[in-house]
Design goal:
The protein has about 450 residues and is mostly helical. Helices cover about 65% and strands about 5% of the residues. Among the domains are: about 150 residues, Glutaredoxin; about 100 residues, no CATH class. It contains 22 helices and four strands. It has a four-stranded mixed β-sheet, sandwiched between helices. A hairpin with a 5-residue loop joins strand 3 and strand 4. The N terminus is likely disordered. InterPro entries: AGR/TXD, Thioredoxin-like_sf, Thioredoxin_CS, Thioredoxin_domain. This is Thioredoxin family protein.
Length: about 450
């Protein structure tokens, strides 16, 4: 009886092995050098799948796309197919050579190793088959796809997986990959919650195709998800644009000065929404003034300009920040931004606090003082050198915190634990702050 079971098992394994070999894409085990020889001999382009062992979308390509018999027939006939783990063996060298930074990367090369196509991210069966047709310059029509091709529909699990995957990418790479991903999704579905969630959380550039789609269809998205949410999405992307203009505009703008680029940028942003553009422009000016304060903390003109611009900002735009629960523009965060990179300016905090107290309301001053003191503690905790002057600045900051402000236990443990000095006043203030921590 056992022999019968063994024979059946062997027959099953042999049949299963044969079916795996005979269907789907047959990836060659040859080295790239050998594959190039074959490619030139047969005059076929080379297809390379770069993946990793941990990549979820890579596994979906293997399970749902590469194993499809129709795809296998087409790719085996028209390409020399190779597959590499980009983190092992020859795959490491080749990934560096072809500048592979995300997975899966689907690379199509001519026999002379010229890049014909390079796609990053998951491609469903239909889209992957179409990609292959474009490389070999054959006309592709959805009507010509055999019915046996896998019918793969995106679902919530795939979207969650993709969203986790793009977290490995730089912000700018996300836009390109997101747009590629959305090419397999009908536009009328881009309004659905799961797809807007991807756009909202992973878009970087206000000028990317997906961001522009939201901007153009702003009213529809506002009806679906609320005007505040859509306005916040657009304004946040505008602020990103202002912070990193050169990255967004590319190499052709590298010859322009920062001021010239910002002028171009604000003109473009104004076309999208003049109100948000002006809000972010003013916010940027305030940020620059905070930087100026660090270098010219005794200059009354700079301080007056800062107070005036903040006052105007609060009157015109603070309601946006309140609606969006976005508070980087209150005086707590502005105080953090004017702390010097080191604490070597004698009496810096004392001078700055006096100026703030003479101009700010009590509530704003309290926010400012708390931010300045907590920021000073953080700077000291991470400082490589701890001079006598930095100890004085730290002592004054701890004194104010111990007297007037309760900090969280998490913050206290993170930063006070990094301060190791033998000064009795500092030790006593630390203990008092820790005792009152909430």
């Amino acid at each position: 009886m056992n022999r019968i079971y063994l024979i059946i098992l062997c027959c099953f394994l042999a049949t299963n092995l044969y079916s795996q070999i005979d269907t789907g894409i047959k990836f060659s085990s040859e080295s790239l050098e050998k594959a190039i020889e074959t490619s030139k001999k047969l005059n076929r382009p080379i297809f390379i799948d770069f993946s990793t062992s941990w990549c979820g979308p890579c596994k979906k390509m293997v399970n749902l796309v590469f194993t499809d018999s129709i795809i296998g027939d087409f790719y085996n006939k028209n390409f020399i197919c190779l597959k590499y783990d980009a983190e092992r063996g020859e795959g490491i060298t080749l990934a560096n050579t072809f500048e592979i930074k995300a997975y899966p990367t689907l690379l199509f090369l001519s026999p002379e190793l010229e890049i014909e196509r390079k796609h990053v991210g998951y491609k469903g069966p239909t889209a992957f088959l179409e990609l292959g047709y474009t490389v070999v310059n054959e006309e592709f029509s959805y009507n010509m796809i055999p019915n046996s091709l896998s019918d793969y529909a995106l679902n919530i699990q795939d979207i969650t997986e993709f969203s986790s995957f793009v977290n490995y990418l730089s912000p700018i790479e996300k836009d390109s990959l997101l747009f590629e991903y959305f090419q397999d999704i009908p536009q009328d579905k881009w309004y659905m919650p799961q797809y807007f969630h991807l756009i909202e959380n992973d878009s970087y550039s206000i000028f990317s195709p997906l961001s522009q789609f939201v901007v153009v269809n702003r009213n529809t998205y506002s009806e679906l998800y609320g005007k505040e949410r859509i306005d916040k999405f657009i304004s946040v992307l505008m602020s990103f644009a202002i912070e990193t203009p050169k990255d967004l505009y590319g190499k052709s703008y590298n010859t322009l000065s920062d001021d010239e680029i910002l002028t171009v940028l604000f003109n473009e942003l104004t076309k999208i929404d003049s109100g948000f553009a002006n809000k972010n422009k003013l916010d940027h000016e305030i940020m620059l003034l905070c930087t100026d304060v660090k270098e010219n903390y005794n200059d009354s003109e700079i301080w007056n300009s800062l107070y005036t611009k903040v006052e105007y900002y609060n009157k015109q735009y603070s309601h946006f920040d309140e609606a969006w629960h976005n508070f980087p523009n209150n005086w707590y965060y502005r105080a953090l931004s004017i702390i010097p990179n080191n604490l070597e300016i004698a009496g810096y905090n004392e001078t700055v606090l006096k100026r703030a107290k003479s101009r700010l309301t009590e509530s704003d001053y309290n926010d400012f003082a708390e931010g300045l003191c907590m920021g000073t503690v953080q700077k000291f905790a991470f400082a490589e050198k701890q001079s006598e002057n930095s100890k004085k600045e730290l002592t004054n900051a701890l004194k104010i915190l111990a007297k007037s402000y309760a900090v969280s236990k998490v913050w206290a443990n993170d930063f006070l634990s990094g301060i190791h000095v033998s000064d009795n006043a500092i030790i006593n203030y630390k203990e008092e702050i820790l005792k009152n921590a909430i």
